[in-house]
Amino acid sequence: MTSTRYARSAIALHWAIAFLLLFQLGLGWHMTSMGKGAAMYAAFQFHKSIGITVLALSVLRVAIRFVKPRPAPVESGVLTGLLMKLVHLGLYAFMIGGPLTGWIVVSTAKVAIPTRLFGVIPWPHLPVSHALNGIAMESHEVLAWMGLGLVALHLAGAVRHHLGGGHENVIGRMIPAVSAPEAARRAIPAALGAAGLLGAAFLSPWLLYRAAPAAPEAPASDTPVAGGSDPAAASSEAVEGPVQAETSEPGEAQTDAPASSEVAVPVAPTSTPAPEASATEAAKPVSWKVMDGGRLGFTASMSGTAIEGRFDQWSADILFDPDALAQSKITVRVPLLSVNTADGSRDSMLKGADFFGSAGTAVFRSSRIRHLGGERYTASGTLSMNGVSRPVTLAFTLHIEGARADVTGSTKLDRTAFGIGQGQWASTDQIAANVDVTFQFSARKAP
């Protein structure tokens, strides 16, 4: 059975898919120039949601094509007819293959980011090999460029068949509210209007998502590099470190030796003993240096899925003795731009202005260390980050054997209390407020 027009359901799906595809093409193009930050991450998440929507609508469109009556094919020559079929087949490949390859790219990423359609509906990853990631990414890009060309050919072909060859109202068969008796005359203005709307859909991502400024890079001279500190700088730290620990402003970048390299922790500045000090004075805290292999990590919840990360650069000044806890002190500094979650897109977001881009260095200074019994301790103090200072308590276990100490501990932070996560990320709908922080390292007494 044939018809002079496509079914209403087919028309609705045709234009819905067309607008979404042009929006996707514009968004994909725009994302390549957005730089790093939360805006790009949000655009990427929305791109995934629209892609799955296009896939679902395209499958439905194919099904309707076989169950609803369609107009008779436009009469044309052999070559023209073959070209028309190839363009239509290519468009269907674009409509279905584009979202599928994108889904594979997301599913095979090194660290898969959870997908929630429009931030609400959890969407699974495909059970495919990670070896397909490169092929899927290249195919996704090729399909995008191919789709842009096919859309242009499809529009040009529709106009050509409408205006030439004696065919009546070819365009009007797929445009709502354009019907006889003046259909053919009204179809061209309607087609121009539709083309304008498609162009607006393509350009709208530039209005919806503004490129964020590039995240500042931490200066090499001010940021400790794990396992690669300069010996001269380390020597200077041993003398001046304690003074910096007391005078630096929250968030100020420090010139620290890395916690993961064996550099002596600064010793307390020399001072004249108090007159009341005696030979029978109680034990005093001693300086410890952190050994290679330490780790400062965190676990956050993103859309209900645990995301683990770490800070590759951090340093600790430790004056400690279990028999002199009142005089013991711990200072830890963490350059926040050293964040690493093993996912480039997510790390770019975290290093952007909405998260750690302007937060500088987080500094924890203990004010009281308590022994809870056995090898259990707590260190209460102040954490300064992003221009905000809050009381924080670290719980840790400490095993000392000779000149070596092994430490394992944790704490829980509220990221919103420090203003980490601005704009749309200030809400806890996608990224939970609580972040679990863990640390593990070994240290030995400084000679």
Automatic annotation (TrEMBL):
InterPro entries: Cyt_b561_bac/Ni-Hgenase, Cytochrome_b561_oxidase, Di-haem_cyt_TM, Lipid/polyisoprenoid-bd_YceI, TTHA0802/YceI-like_sf. Keywords: Cell membrane, Electron transport, Heme, Iron, Membrane, Metal-binding, Transmembrane, Transmembrane helix, Transport. It is a multi-pass membrane protein. Its cofactor is heme b. The keyword Nuclease does not apply. Residues 218-284 are annotated as: Disordered. The chain crosses the membrane at residues 38-60, 89-113, 142-159, 187-209. Residues 287-444 form the Lipid/polyisoprenoid-binding YceI-like domain. Belongs to the cytochrome b561 family. This is YceI family protein. It comes from Novosphingobium beihaiensis.
